[in-house]
Amino acid sequence: MEDTGALTDDLTGQSGPASLWDSMEQKPQRIVSCILNVGLSLSKWTIEERRTVPLACRTKLSQAFEKCWAQQLTSTAAQQTASLVQELQTIAHNSGHPVPLLIALDQENGGVNSLFDDDYICQFPSAMGVAATGSPEIAYEVANATGKELNAVGINMIMGPVLDVLTNARYQPLGVRATGDDPQEVSQYGIAAMNGYKDAGIVTCGKHFPSYGNLDFLGSSLDMPIITETLEQLSLGALVPFRNAIREGLDAMMVGGCAIANAGMNVMHACLSDQVVDDLLRNDLGFNGVTISECLEMDALSHDIGVRGGTVMAVEAGCDLVLLCRSFTVQLEAISGLKLGIENGMISRERIQISLRRMLNLKSKCTSWEKALNPEGVNYLATLHPGHLALSTKAYDKSITIMRDKGHLLPLSNTLYPDEELLLLTPLVKPLPASAATKAVADGPGIPSEHDKWVHRSSIMSGEGVFRELGRSLARQRHGKLLHTSYTANGVRPVHENLINRAAAIIIITADANRNLYQNGFTKHVAMMCSMLSAGGKKKSLIVVSVSSPYDFAMDKAIGTYVCTFDFTETAMSALVRALFGEFIPQGTLPGTLRKSRKVQKSRQHWLVESWNRDRDHRGLLALIKTMEKTSPPNQICALSGATAGSFELFNPSESGEPIEESHYVVRNSSTQALFGFCSTYFYASTGMIGSLFVDPAKRNLSIGHSLHQRAVRGLVQKPGIKKLQLGSGLPGIYLGIPMSDLSEGARLKRWFANNGWDILGPRLLYTLTIRNLSHWQPPEGLLQSIQRVSFAFDLIHGSENSETVLEHVRCNAGPEVLELYRLALEDHKACGIVRAKSPVDGALVGTVIICRQETPLATYLPVLQAAGDTVGGILAPVVPSSPQAAIVLQGLALLGIRQNKAHRASTCVLNWVAGEERDTLLGMGFDVLDAFEELSCSPETFNVASLG
């Protein structure tokens, strides 16, 4: 203990970069502790730099920790929390810390609340419950309210949001702590929550990277859960929310403690592996924030490696903070391990400096001494509480979900007479303590079990207590008799049979029945009894309510009435009672694929489709575009990036072109003016085109896209003289077809369009290519000589001079929208030009391409020119008829375009509307694929006008 100062003095040396260390104002003892996260034993508090407190003050800090333990922080008032945090920050300030402590908390809501106070702290739904509301706005509001409450008591970091995708949702212990099994939905709600926390003034920590959403549990609690998915599978699913959150500014990341076993990676513990932390998280996903290890006290880590060695491995792997949750003795063991790692040269000074910089940057975002020493406290919480209570009620009411009600049993006020008896059957579940601390006090010191780790749930009262109160609430609500008993793994007993015979309606509560199979068996047994008794003439209405995972009976149609609440806190049960008796109509939706499997969703709902109104819908479309951009994978330009509402409106832009008819459609909320979906259509000569069709990700699988598609096709096929329908457009050149850069998403979209009548078997492949760092580009060796050898003549023209031959060439070899694109380019003689290739034999045109600068008006309709970089040069729509020399003509056109872009000092070159057979030729010149599309076309007769409504 006492030689730490000497250790760190030796580390600083005489020749190191003194400015960083000198700025710390004290001897750099914190070199050890700045990356060692000494967690407060309760509720995963994160208090780093504890080791830096001078010996004279160390006793005070220890006393503060002991005081916290004795008072059972999470079951006491918010005032005690604020006082404790303020005391800890005061000790740190008085001991000379240059910046305040970082104090973090698990406050996921639902069943995971580490801080609760009936008077000041509000209960909100779980992550899956919030997603069931169908409202990212509510996700933001709930997170913001939670963040404000934590901030008021001095907490400056939240261990959230949970970004895991429940790939194998039915059997995963995370359950409702995760949003669901759809990566895009998890992204949307996770980012909304992250922004809510940030706007409340606290920093965020995504978890549990790379995923706890599809774990295999192979044996005892000492066996490490394993991820067996390949990196490619993870990239297409589990990693999507993490990538998107990183792009949106996630502050920190918790790396999980699971193993990874696949063809490309064999890792025993993710948070101890540089393949996961440095390579996958930092290099591949581009994360530059603070990384935090999983708790090293979990059985599978501590028994396999030990805390001392695990600490060194975590730091070596790239973790900036090491999480230790309970035992102070174990924390000292970790510090000694880190000390040895430094002495033995396993951990370098540079490695520690990097973590220190990251930590200081993180703290600068969320705290200062003024804020840390003066928490707003309960007076501020009192002003927030009424509004937060109203939000809590709204969120829970909107989350209650009726998945099935075949017999129309709900609301009970309409189907259950006052003299009939109602039976409530509830499972005997383990008491769920208010926090891990309560269990620790009751059980004595020790390391949390594997069950505690993976099924991390906490509640305000035990399950039995909640269900007793549920029974009382049901009795009060109906002003009549209620029968209530519990059931266990002993199954249906005579007492249950007698009560079922008496009751006219039975409510069975299940909580994670897929992992507590006795609940599954009991419920099916009762369902069979009710069916037989009903067939015999006795009224037996059965309602099954899942109060945790909605997957219990999601696919079991034998359960005719099935309701989901997503947690069983008192607040959730209160909302359930009001829903069962018709005080409000539940509107909750199921997460991800469950929503898609509902028959009620499969029977397509018809939405009111309205014509686009610029004045009314302009702002809503901009908001929808921004939402779509946020759901696109990072490091990949979304097709809508750079687009505005004006990008879809052509207004017959060419002065000399043929008339263009355009009709655009929206599905909107007429109350809020929000757009749920948008579709643009164009009619050039005899071709009708759907130029874009996109729906708010939060509103997918609700038939909005189907309604828009029907309206768009109906409008096009009724155009006089129409000969062809096309999916995708070169002008506007936003969606050239179905976007295929994300193969899994592209495959989903193709299936969707196939189900809506399109022939997907013969698509035309179109690409957008790019050259980055254009100033360093050099033509491949021998290319110039090859072009010169064939003797084609290349020239550049501007304006209308010689335009007729160009337009005739394009008219004969490309579609009508490309022809219109050329007309626009010829009219813009300031920022556009046409490169022509002529035959050496007769001077006939054998190829053309448009070149342009970023400031061209064309960029309005080709937003990729704005989104691809700061200074972009465009090479657009090469038109090269098939011939033996087509490839060399194309290369010559591209080469002149590149040279023109370089001459205009463009840093990036974008080559748009490249046909599939031309792609490889251009890739050989140094282009890369920026985006890929599949253009579909069919005859108007494919669609029956009568069936389109």
From TrEMBL:
InterPro entries: Acyl_CoA_acyltransferase, GH, Glyco_hydro_3_C_sf, Glyco_hydro_3_N, Glyco_hydro_3_N_sf, NagZ_Beta-hexosaminidase. GO terms for biological process: carbohydrate metabolic process; peptidoglycan turnover. Keywords: Glycoprotein, Glycosidase, Hydrolase. Residues 78-362 form the Glycoside hydrolase family 3 N-terminal domain. Signal peptide: none annotated. Residues 1-22 are annotated as: Disordered. The keyword Repeat does not apply. Belongs to the glycosyl hydrolase 3 family. This is Beta-hexosaminidase. It comes from Lachnellula subtilissima.
